[in-house]
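[agent] plan:
  1. take the single chain provided in the ticket
  2. run structure prediction with default settings
  3. attach structure tokens to the ticket
  4. add a short note for the reviewer (M.T.)
[agent] executing step 1
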Amino acid sequence: MYAQGHGVNQDFSKAKLWFEKAAAQGLPQAQTCLGTLYAHGQGVEQDFSKAKSWFEKAATQGFADAQTCLGTLYAQGQGVKQDFNKAKSWFEKAAAQGERLGKAQFNLGVLYYEGLGVKQDFAKAKYWFEESAKKDNAEAEYNLGIIYAEGQGVKQDFAKAKSWLKKAAEKGNAEAQEAIKKFPN
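[agent] step 2 finished; step 3 output follows
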């Protein structure tokens, strides 16, 4: 409640205090929240090493959100040496559990789309973007629109491209809102 400002004034210091109490009892959700506070510098000085430590505690307990966060640190080289193989491994663990927001699936799609730590593979990128889009991830929907518009690993299909871009645009994705203007009504 304190972290989100639900029913109380937002106060990251108080949120940290409560997260620490729960994290000390081994609760992976609280450990992940502490990692997030450190990753974003909310109520604490930004410290990716501490974020990594908290994410690892929760990730090794099998908590998908923490696995996604840890994978992101490795993908971006924040607090750790950039390592796309480790990022992929953590994203795969989270995706295998059906990570709830589709971020792990989206990030796997990006790795395959860009060829980061893996052989570039548009078919695999499309698969992971579709898995993420099933969870209403607007970024995945945008990327699917681009894949169909450009015919990357699929037959070029402007109707499908427009459909995906429209879904992303309706969720407020600015890139999709701009890209969809290029299609006739």
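[agent] step 4 note for reviewer: The longest helix spans residues 12-24.
[agent] ticket updated
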